[in-house]
């Protein structure tokens, strides 16, 4: 492989540093961060007993302080969150009975009040959301019967109505979704305990799905990142053949966005287009592009022209603190300063050019909040 990325000037790894910020009041996991109106909000989560919570907070970078907000009307964890101007839509998740919910509630940032909105068509957790032009698209999920869903629903805030759109070709939950142009890219996810390799794209204008070439390697707890030119599938726990145990991997796979915009052919009688391998494919990479450390269930993000990975689980007996950054010019990974608090299953968000890593699991639910940024930012 030559170079999958834009050979731009990127900051040295020596320019990055971690900052330990004000911790959460309660250590938790499966909390959902979202930016709204230039502020960082944190919604729900699970405490050390595994019970969902209705706690909501807002972070002030200037004061390095978390402020508790009015609690969510419905106790839940693992919610999908969608920023809509100065309002935050909170969708589905796991309730007190540890089963999926159809509940949808909205928090008004200016008024500091919650209101109930129309529910999803069906209870679901592990829903993925994308916001485009003030419309919320809710993709997939796991229902009360534990079966993966293929539903695609569009929410109109003005009418408070959920519209049913053509379903995904592959039902799944906990998928990774990205918006690029007028298209929603959906990667991976799960069906029960099984990882999904499907890669499918919904065109919001044509209102139809396209099947793209599947992710080459079947693995769970991997991460996906979008850059200006590519999508990357990173690491994870690879399913072994036969009775062998799954193994942690360093694998990195790259899909070129420009190749993926080539036209495929339509499957007769359906709203699905087929993209054969030669019409847009995963780029064949060399081992040189693999991460330095085998890991799964880790944080991954695109920050300051670099793909960043941190923490997670690996072959070591303890959770990981190591972090690394992909150099897009040299096509290789370089070490970053380690995450101050080793952990996995973290929540994360890029907020004001900082990568926030929030909560997660260390020896138990963590209250740590740490941010990675450039020295001069």
Helix content: under 10%
How would you name the CATH homologous superfamily?
A: Kelch-type beta propeller
The number of distinct helices, counting runs of at least 4 residues, comes to 1
Q: What is the fold named in CATH at topology level?
A: Neuraminidase
Distance between the termini: 33 Å
Arithmetic mean pLDDT: 91
How many β-strand stretches?
33
Beta-strand share of residues = 35-45%
- The CATH architecture classification is 6 Propeller
Query: Given the C-alpha coordinates, what overall shape results?
Result: globular
**Radius of gyration of CA atoms, rounded to a whole number:** 20 Å
> Reading side by side through the largest sheet, how are the strands ordered?
14-15-18-19-25-24
The major sheet is characterized as:
6 strands, mixed
The structural class is mainly beta
In words, what does this structure look like?
The protein has one helix at 257-260; strands spanning 16-20, 32-36, 39-46, 52-60, 65-68, 80-84, 87-91, 104-108, 113-117, 128-132, 135-139, 152-156, 161-165, 176-180, 183-187, 190-191, 194-195, 199-203, 208-212, 219-220, 223-226, 230-238, 247-256, 265-266, 272-274, 282-283, 299-303, 306-310, 323-327, 332-336, 347-351, 354-358, 369-374. A hairpin with a 5-residue loop joins β3 (39-46) and β4. A six-stranded mixed sheet has the order 14-15-18-19-25-24, with no helix packed on it. Strands 20, 21, 22, 23 and 26 form a five-stranded antiparallel sheet that branches. A four-stranded antiparallel sheet has the order 1-33-32-31, with no helix packed on it. The protein has one helix and 33 strands. It has a single domain, classed as Neuraminidase.
